[in-house]
UniProtKB/TrEMBL annotation:
Every Glycosyltransferase RgtA/B/C/D-like domain range: 95-200
Protein source organism: Desulfonema magnum
Protein's UniProt keywords contain Transmembrane helix: yes
Protein name per Swiss-Prot or TrEMBL: Glycosyltransferase domain-containing protein, tetratricopeptide repeat-containing
InterPro entries hit by this protein: O-mannosyl-transferase_TMTC, RgtA/B/C-like, TPR-like_helical_dom_sf, TPR_rpt
Annotated SUPFAM superfamilies: TPR-like
Keywords: Membrane, Repeat, TPR repeat, Transmembrane, Transmembrane helix
Each TPR repeat, start to end: 480-513
Keyword Transmembrane assigned: yes
Membrane-traversing stretches: 12-31, 95-113, 125-143, 149-166, 178-201, 311-330, 342-360, 366-383, 403-426
């Protein structure tokens, strides 16, 4: 540990932690006054009787056995139940729990990379980008995305435990790493990519295996770099063997997740979304997420699948991905952080890139919560390398030492402002979906959700009818929902015949749709009574 002191004789790492905590809380504290939203918060908290019951024996049993919301993530359910035990149904407190996990993840990320690399300021920059990037607002400001911040908490603990294991190998430390990984899988199955990331970190910065004559740009402070039973450096085969239990758990979790999501109807069929369209969307998504990282504008909670793909768009995205991949491989000896960061990004996004399409969205901001760390690594270690390049050698060091921190500060201040604004859109269902409609086009799902917000939250039937009608005009995968809810709104306005027509339309799409069938029976029964009464009055 560094003995350097700085302002008021305080260690730099303590000042960094103070900055990370204060700025992160500063941009997210507003969620304490936010409401639940009508997009998955109902499934996870508002209308979930087991969660609303708190940590009762029945609820805890349900958490470990249920596949509700097409997922098996018992720790996520337990965390929501714990919130109910502590705060009741106060939405602001549920939101602030997410913020606390995000702060913890930020600090752990800083300590993990500071420990692995021995470099304080690049590690701090990675953590600050992670904490303050507006694309991450969705993961933090959305109660239903507790699984993101909770699983990442165990992801970071797994990395921290792994560093300790690398430093001093032993069965106890190995089992602790495995335990944290299992807990992460029980919070969100996207953690399945972690064994792959451990192999990347073995290469850089842990340097547990090296290509002959390879030069690294930074020293690894952990002196004991040997795996159990090996020499100073470990073969790739041994490192992979060491990860076999992790890969087995990942495979098992993946199988369970796919089966659960298929049984819940969350996995799109190849008929509804052909493989060629999935590949095109995946390629565009990989490049599109990079664009959002660089220029995070027009962020929305839901992005519809495009009605068609431009060949030039797909080709351009493919060239970008291939070119960057080739570039980082060519530079792997001199700048290994580039390859590690890039393949961290590519690999951790793979489960949600859309080749196995789960849900209705084409992309989602929440999917970048862990993957963007890879791109942040490339930036944090790449910017100083660029500054030290031959073309800048004539610039005095004291100028560089002012320009680079100033540039970093400008980036972080800009991100803080953008994140504050983005978090504000999550104030309630209407503000959230209004913003989505402003920044996206042909978004039938957003109109449907806005209709629900007006009908069920604000009681504005007229506006609800407008948005339900528009959602049906644009179309989206679950149009039966819009037909049913539009029918309910029309019935409230006394337009019984139109309501019946929409209930029947919902049943034509899905004859087993119980809610629409019950609504239709109810309306027909009331109409029959009304007609009978009118007949007698005559």
């Amino acid at each position: 540990m560094s003995n350097k002191k700085t302002f008021l004789n305080i260690r730099p790492e303590l000042l960094i932690c103070f900055f990370l905590v204060i700025t992160t809380i500063g941009v997210y504290v507003q969620v304490g006054t936010h409401a639940f939203v009508n997009y998955d918060d109902e499934l996870y908290v508002i209308k979930n009787p087991y969660v609303r019951a708190g940590l009762s024996p029945e609820s805890v049993t349900w958490a470990f056995t249920a596949t509700h919301a097409s997922n098996w993530h018992p720790l996520t359910w337990l965390s929501h139940m714990a919130d109910v035990e502590l705060y009741g149904m106060n939405p602001g407190q549920h939101h602030l729990t997410n913020v606390l996990f995000h702060v913890a993840n930020t600090l752990l990320l800083f300590f993990v990379f500071r420990r692995m690399t021995g470099e304080e300021w690049p590690a701090a920059f990675v953590a600050a980008l992670f904490a303050l990037h507006p694309v991450h607002a969705e993961s933090v400001a959305w109660v239903a995305e507790r699984k993101d911040v909770l699983s990442t908490f165990f992801w970071m603990l797994t990395l921290w435990g792994y560093i300790r294991y690398v430093q001093t190998p032993g069965a106890g430390r190995y089992l602790m790493v495995l335990l944290f990984f299992i807990l992460g899988l029980m919070a969100k199955p996207m953690v399945v990519t972690l064994p792959f990331v451990l192999l990347l970190l073995d290469y850089w910065p842990l340097r547990r295996f090296l290509i002959p004559d390879q030069a690294h740009s930074s020293d690894m402070p952990i002196k004991n770099q040997q795996a159990p039973g090996s020499g100073q450096q470990t073969s790739i085969q041994s490192l992979i063997t060491e990860k076999i239990p992790f890969f087995i758990l990942s495979a098992g979790s993946s199988v369970v997740t796919i089966l659960v999501q298929k049984s819940g109807g969350a996995v799109a069929s190849l008929e509804s979304l052909p493989l060629i369209e999935r590949i095109a969307n995946a390629v565009i998504a990989y490049s599109g997420y990079i664009g959002k990282m660089i220029w995070p504008s027009q962020l929305a909670v839901f992005y519809s699948h495009p009605r068609s793909f431009s060949g030039w768009h797909v080709a351009g995205a493919s060239v970008l991905i291939f070119s960057v991949s080739l570039w980082v491989i060519v530079n792997i000896k001199k700048r290994p952080y580039l390859a590690v960061g890039w393949f961290w990004y590519m690999g951790t996004l793979l489960p949600v890139i859309g080749l196995v399409q789960v849900g209705l969205q084409s992309i989602a901001d929440r999917y970048t919560y862990i993957p963007f760390i890879g791109l942040f690594i490339m930036m944090a270690w790449g910017i100083p390398d660029i500054a030290n390049a031959r073309v800048f050698q004539n610039i005095r060091d004291h100028i560089k030492n002012r320009v680079i921190p100033g540039f970093a500060a400008l980036i972080l201040l800009s991100l803080m402002g953008a994140t504050w604004i983005q978090v504000g859109y999550w104030r309630n269902s209407v503000t959230l979906h209004k913003h989505t409609l402003e920044v996206t086009s042909n978004n039938g799902m957003a109109h449907y959700l806005m209709g629900n917000a007006f009908l069920l939250v604000q009681g504005d039937t007229d506006k609800a009818i407008v948005h339900y009608t528009e959602s049906l005009r644009l179309g989206f995968d679950h149009m039966m929902l819009a037909h049913n809810d539009l029918g309910a709104a029309l019935f409230q306005k006394g337009k019984t015949d139109e309501a019946i027509a929409h209930f029947r339309a919902a049943l034509r799409i899905n004859p087993d749709y119980v809610q629409a069938r019950n609504n239709l029976k109810h309306v027909l029964k009331l109409r029959k009574k009304s007609e009978t009464k009118s007949l007698f009055e005559k």
